[in-house]
Automatic annotation (TrEMBL):
Molecular function (Gene Ontology), one example: L-allo-threonine aldolase activity
UniProt record similarity statement: Belongs to the threonine aldolase family.
Modified residues (N6-(pyridoxal phosphate)lysine): K202
Organism of provenance: Streptomyces sp. DSM 5940
Record protein name field: Threonine aldolase
Amino acid sequence: MIEMRSDTFTLPTEEMLSAMGRATLGDDVYGEDPTVNHLEELAAKSVGKPAACLMPSGTMANLAALLVHVPRGGKVLVGDESDIYLYEAGGASVCGGMVYEPIPTRPDGTLALDDLAAAFPPDPDDPQFALPGLICVENTHNRMGGRVLGQAYLAELKAFAAVHGVPVHMDGARIFNAAVASGLPAEEIAAHADSVQFCLSKGLSAPIGSILAGSAEFIGKARRVRKMLGGGMRQAGVFAAAGTVALTDMVDRLAEDHRLAARFAAGLAEVDGIDVAPGSVTTNIVLFRVTAEGLDAARFLEDARQRGLAMGEFGHGRIRAVTHRGLGPADVPAAVAIVADVVRAAR
């Protein structure tokens, strides 16, 4: 099977498995796992924040950030195509009693400042309105095809947030893809956010884990939330060791994933019955549509899977394919050939 549903299907490297077996362990709930402590220091430095906390998942890391930033009854401003809004089970409402206000997501993954401004009540003292407590952005933006948010936009957003007295949280699940694609250090990208989450278990290939980073005070509160949510882990150094390898050895190789995605998109563009914009592919996510007559997305995906290619449906009639370390150079032309065969067979 050529697996292109997600970069979460990556498996740990031999170096990660070896590091996991050699890890020095302690009780992380007491703050005494040296391997976790080392990873958190490394992770905080990598995104230019004073402190960081290891979380079991990106969903928990984002939820912890929202619970720290926004009081009960407050609003969190999120993109209507964001992972936090669509794919994280409404956790902020369920656990934090806060309101999501979805903001229209533009094709480049940004949220227009005018749209954000409209979410603030004209009179903040009017008790009828829930008050915004946080703005969330996503970088890279998953449902916009792995788009990288520009630095100029992020600077404008941070200035806007400061004027309105609210913090900015960056769901940077793939922030290192953004860094590699833009040629900028991740810390420069994260500088425009008060807090940032990033995944160790996607393209970086660790088996589990995400990082939440921010100020020391913020992370202190996030640790309490993590415990409340059931994320307090004991000898967590077992997988923190893999996370350390992910940050030290796996960032630069993300460029290869981007090259494979560009090659896949270029190949798809040659298939009659497939609609794709190769020029929009900047990281490791390719979005396309099947336009061949008589072939809908569900049938296309099933026929492709029967031929050995796994991809995913992605809303709005789109298909998503994600490149990652588990793919080799030969897999891309093979995947294109499968797509072409599925389309041809449907005619």
